[in-house]
Every structure is written in C-alpha cells, then in structure tokens.
Amino acid sequence: xxxxxKERRSRRGITYRVDxxxxxxQRAGKRGKLYAxxxxxxxxxxxxxxxxxxxxxxxxxxxERPDPDLMRWVNELxxxxxxxxxxxxxxxSRAVAALKPLADHVDDYHQALLDRGxxxxxxxxxxxxxxxxxxxxxxxxxxxLDAAAVARYLAGRxxxxxxxxxxxxxxxxxxxxxxxxxxxxxxKERRALExxxxxxxxxxxxxTDKQRERRPLDAEELGLLIEATERGPAWxxxxxxxxxxxxxxxxxxxFRVSEVGYQARTENGSLRHPRFLRWRDDLARATTxxxxxxxAPVRNRCRTAAFA
Length: 308
Hints:
The chain is mainly α. The protein has three domains: 3-91, no CATH class; 102-188; 219-306, no CATH class.
C-alpha cells in the first residue's frame, strides 16, 4: 500500500514524499519496484495523494476502472507523476487513453483510415465531421463524450437553416455515422471500454428532407448551359470554350468533376474523335466510389461536339 514518508532537507525544511510499489515481485514473494512522488511541503497534501494512489492499487487488484472523480485527479497530476503511475501498472491502457486529448485520438483515427486504404478525401471529411461534433458538445477527453449531448447538438443543427450552419437530416446522419465509427475504433484499439454513442439511431426521413432537389438536365437545358458557357468569361483558370468541352465530356461519359479533371488518353479511336477514354494506370482507382474504371465509352454526339 502507498505510504507517506517524512524527509529532512536543510534548505527547505521538512518535506514529505509518497511511496508506492508495482507488482513485479509478487510472484517471487518479494516487494515490487519502489516509486516515489516527492516535494510535498504539507502532510495533508501528501495524505490526499496517498489515499488516491491506494484507491488505484485497490482497483488494480479488482480490475475495475477508476471513477470520473479519480480520473480527473489523475489528469491534473504532472506528466512525470502520471508516467510513474503507468509504469507501476496503476493505470491501464484505457485509463491512459482517457487522459489523452480527444483531438489526438481523432488524429490517430484519421491516420488509421489512411493506413487501411481509405482515400484522403474520405479521411479528411470524416475527421471534419467528428471534430465538429466533438467541438459542438465541448468534449476535450474521452470521458466527456456523451450520447445525450451529441443528440442535442445534432438536433439543434437540424433546426437551423443552411445559412446559419444548419444540417439536413442526411448530413446529420453523416456526422453521427462518422462519430459512431470513431467510437467503435476506440473500443477495438482498447482505448475505451464501450462506445458511448452505439445506441444512437440514424434519422429515418433523410429521403424526404432533401434541402436541394437534384435532377438530370434534359437535352434542351444542357444545350443552353453549354452555349452560355462558351460565351462566358474565364473561370477557375479556364476559358469558356474549354469549360464547354469539359461539360460535354462529363455529360457524355458520366464522369464526376474530380474524374474529369484527371488526364486521360484515347484508345480504339483517333485523338480527334475518340470512342473511349482510358485512364492512366496510376489514376484508375480514383474513380467513382473508388471502383476501378479504366475505360469509359464516349457517346457519338459527345465526341463529335467535344473534340471537333
């Protein structure tokens, strides 16, 4: 058990230290390694630290987790003292993770998404959604993650308009899905005992709450768009005719904006009127939903208008 020891020093007078041991010598019937926390000028302060360390020793024997009050006390200790508690096995991996800033856990999760093959865009958006929820509820550590607070935060964002930072039901589900994935990762990595948001449900009326109704352009509308673009000014470093060509390619192939931006080469056709667009091998995986699509057909009207 932890104990308070009186020390005598000529310059500072009487000081106190708190001694405790690890369990390294228990199997051999010996005492464990001794650790000491020094520098207490008053015995009541040393007694308080000794009492809390004794509680950690009891929890170490039963395998239980420290209560929130005890974890807050540990979090306020100097880093060197916390390191000694960890080396003495008074703090397990979950307890140590609870002391780590929540933003650092999110950074680790972001890197984990990249390491397991996720795209940079997906990892960046996921991190953005998680940090928005974390900052919205004012959480700075794992013990501050609260399902009720998350539910209130998302409900408040859904009640606002888009101009005021509001969220649609679909966007709210994206935020919650990202946070649930993050908490599940914490459990798998043994940084948390359970996910605090595992029981939160997604909103079911996402399809009926669309703030922007999207539909394909008909032939007349597409023609008017291309004509207006050809006569329009330069935008994002591209002239009107160049942007009109990209619009024709996108409408004839189904490529998204990010896909059209990649360089492609032609195959099975002349450069002037290609029947297919073929991705470079190093860019083939960066297509819609990360599914490989090396070759895409070009419609007759599209290749005649775009490459003429």
